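Structure in, sequence out. Go:
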């Protein structure tokens, strides 16, 4: 369709928002009517209507029934074409879809419209030479291996009944009843309730009251809930508890022997082989966590060095994507009943803005510094990822079976390139990180 569509603005005009622009468009009414007639003739050749042979429906009836639809489609196509051509001429990078509204006009030859849209920001990358980035470092040695073995043993602990007073580390089973002003309160009662002393499952004052009691013993005590307690009606309130210890069990950790090795997947029970596998896995995990932390440091530094305005259209798209992802995650964890959980848009605004900002900044850094992923990088990341699985070769084949899976790895490789570039450009300060803190082990 050769529609005489023009822009009445030579340039897209800025509005009050930094990235928002307005463009005035005009469509020739005569050309619009011609295209509408073309569409109506096409419709008339294909529609079936009772009382008429196919393709023989009178033009006035076709126009009466389909005229508005044909005109609407012709107008939308003409506006889309006019907008696209003008954007191309002016070399504008449009973010999202334009909002096009008709304008009041006295013209008898043209219909006038106003298109409001957003453009991508122009990014001038900031210098990193004066930016300090803290890089966490940690060498895996004997102490880290001992700590990891301790965690693995604790994960496989068993509890045996004992006839003695409860001590820290024991698992106790109790009945308890809590009262406030002599009246039981909600959530303050349970029977046969098990927990491990010293792990923080209960408030410290409550655990201290259980310490030293034997199975069959009962105790009453008063305690005050913390001022910041999650149940607001109990926060800062004094209550009375009565507890009865039903059972005390002490922790029995497994010995580091062939059975322990077999429990960790070493079929022949070889302890040396087990230790080698633990060390290899531990080094991989430490490397991954260190890299994750330094990447967070780099991304924060890039955001600070490159403050930009972000298109609201892109932020809104990211909010919707995050909401959908969260809903799917909740459904997987909580079942179908969670699929209609009422998501609040506000929960995701800050995260969406951060992700969009980083995406735009990283894209510019990659383009300017030619940091695109290379095939050997992608291959290395796939192979390293596969090593944590029982059959690495199957995982490698899985990644290479579909392009979209490799695209995810390509994104990881590009981020790695950006991190390496940023560390070479900024002032890097190495800081030793504690192993337990890095791995999230409880004290």
């Amino acid at each position: 369709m050769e529609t005489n569509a023009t822009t009445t603005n030579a340039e897209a005009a800025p509005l009050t928002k930094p990235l928002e622009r307005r463009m005035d468009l005009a469509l020739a009414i005569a050309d619009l009517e011609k295209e509408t007639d073309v569409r109506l003739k096409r419709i008339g050749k294909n529609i079936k209507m009772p009382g008429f042979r196919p393709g023989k429906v009178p033009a006035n009836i076709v126009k009466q029934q389909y005229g508005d639809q044909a005109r609407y489609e012709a107008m939308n196509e003409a506006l889309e074409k006019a907008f696209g051509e003008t954007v191309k001429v002016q070399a504008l990078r449009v973010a999202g879809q334009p909002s096009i509204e008709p304008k009041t006009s006295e013209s008898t030859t043209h219909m006038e419209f106003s298109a409001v849209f957003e453009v991508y920001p122009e990014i001038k990358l900031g210098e990193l030479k004066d930016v300090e980035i803290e890089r966490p470092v940690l060498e895996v040695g004997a102490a880290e291996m001992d700590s990891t073995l301790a965690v693995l043993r604790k994960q496989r602990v068993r509890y045996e009944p004992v006839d003695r007073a409860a001590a820290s580390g024991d698992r106790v089973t109790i009945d308890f009843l809590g009262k406030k002003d002599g009246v039981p309160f909600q959530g303050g009662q349970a029977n046969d309730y098990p927990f491990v002393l010293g792990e923080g499952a209960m408030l410290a004052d409550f655990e201290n009251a259980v310490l030293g009691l034997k199975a069959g013993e009962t105790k009453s005590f008063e305690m005050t809930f913390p001022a910041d307690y999650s149940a607001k009606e109990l926060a800062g309130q004094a209550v009375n508890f009565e507890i009865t210890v039903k059972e005390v069990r002490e922790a029995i950790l497994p010995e580091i022997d062939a059975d322990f090795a077999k429990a960790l997947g070493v079929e022949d029970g070889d302890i040396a082989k087990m230790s080698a596998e633990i060390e290899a896995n531990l080094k991989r995990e430490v490397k991954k966590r260190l890299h994750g932390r330094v990447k967070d440091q780099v991304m924060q530094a890039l955001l600070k060095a490159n403050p930009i305005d972000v298109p609201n259209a892109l932020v809104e798209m990211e909010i919707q994507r995050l909401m959908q992802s969260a809903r799917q995650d909740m459904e997987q964890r909580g079942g179908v009943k969670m699929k209609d959980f009422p998501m609040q848009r506000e929960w995701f605004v800050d995260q969406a803005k951060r992700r969009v900002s980083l995406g735009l900044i990283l894209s510019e850094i990659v383009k300017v510094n030619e940091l695109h992923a290379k095939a050997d990088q992608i291959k290395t990341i796939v192979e390293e990822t596969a090593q944590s699985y029982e059959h690495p070769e199957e995982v490698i084949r899985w990644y290479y079976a579909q392009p979209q899976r490799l695209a995810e790895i390509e994104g990881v490789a590009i981020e790695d390139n950006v991190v390496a570039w940023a560390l070479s450009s900024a002032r890097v300060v190495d800081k030793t990180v504690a192993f337990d803190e890095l791995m999230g082990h409880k004290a």
